[in-house]
Amino acid sequence: MVLEKFTPKKDLNRRAANYMEKHVSVKTVLRFETCSSFMLHATNAEMSARKMVISNRCGNRFCPVCTWGTAKKDAIKLSIILEAIRDIEDKEFLFLTLTAPNCTGEELGSEIDRFNKAVNKLFQRRNVKKIAKGYARKLEVTTDQEQYVTEELYKRKKPYYDRRSLNVGDPNPTYNSYHPHLHILVTVNKSYFNKPEQFISKAEWLAMWRECMEDDSITQVDAKKASVTGKSNAVLEIAKYSAKGSDLYHSEIVFDTFYTALKKRQLLVYGGMMKDYAKLFKNGDLDKYKKVDEDEYTHMLRSVWKASKYENVLRKFTPEEYENYNQRALLIEENNEVR
Q1: Is the pLDDT of residue 69 over 70?
Q2: What is the per-residue burial (b if ≥16 Cβ within 10 Å, else e) of 116-131?
Q3: Which of 92, 148, 161, 277 lies 20 to 30 Å (CA to CA) from residue 73?
Q4: Confidence category of residue 245, pLDDT binned at 50, 70, 90
Q5: Residues near 288 by Cβ (< 8 Å), separated by ≥ 6?
Q6: pTM over the 0.85 mark
């Protein structure tokens, strides 16, 4: 299968379009449903390397194809920003995860508002302002739609179920609930991790987060030094979807809940030094940190979506195309459209 990564997401697009109909105009639904039905890739004869040249992307944040592409681009951007900050500013990074107890679908929108107000309060605290030189934060929402505890759920949340003496097959206490949480990469001085007067313990983060949320029922936060080399977990957690496909498209009711709560929200937020470097990235001032593309592009791959699969036509570049696309290869960011 030539486009093995696109095909399942494009197939899911049809179901998602059905869910979207009640929320948007007919024109938007049509664009959504036909998203990525036409694509051109620069490639080689073996099709082992590909760069997107153009496609009819819809750009909707609820589109399975576009959210996947956006997550990849965000991961590349964030990795470059972090590398540049570490190189130029000699900083390190703290990976912070802030949670609260699950809420109902009806409460999800107001709960996200509460999170946003609380995290702004948190970063105005004197001891946090002293250590935080910048941040990138991402809102993620998961949902639990298993009515009973499954083996997979039990393995993933064993301490939680054990504390409540629950086993596989028991009624799931978090069934039909939603779990908003924040992943935050905080830029800190290198000395943060080895100077007691600067370091903020996990217990202190928890106490501050409880105060900012005005919620003593919160039992967990996570705070640890972030590894930001290669495909680090910290970068992937910040860049990934705000709602994974298995949750978002679980059912029409679940989709409606996510859509109402997440539409028009800024999901990935940069602040301080991170915001400054995001601007440098946009202006091309961090291009030297981009990975050099050493692949040779010799062919054009045209893909058209028909009857649940892509029909592909491969042709060799003209001499002019060969020179053009190989010269521009460094400028074609993964999954970006260039015209």
Answers
A1: yes
A2: bebbebbbeeeebeeb
A3: 92
A4: confident
A5: none
A6: yes
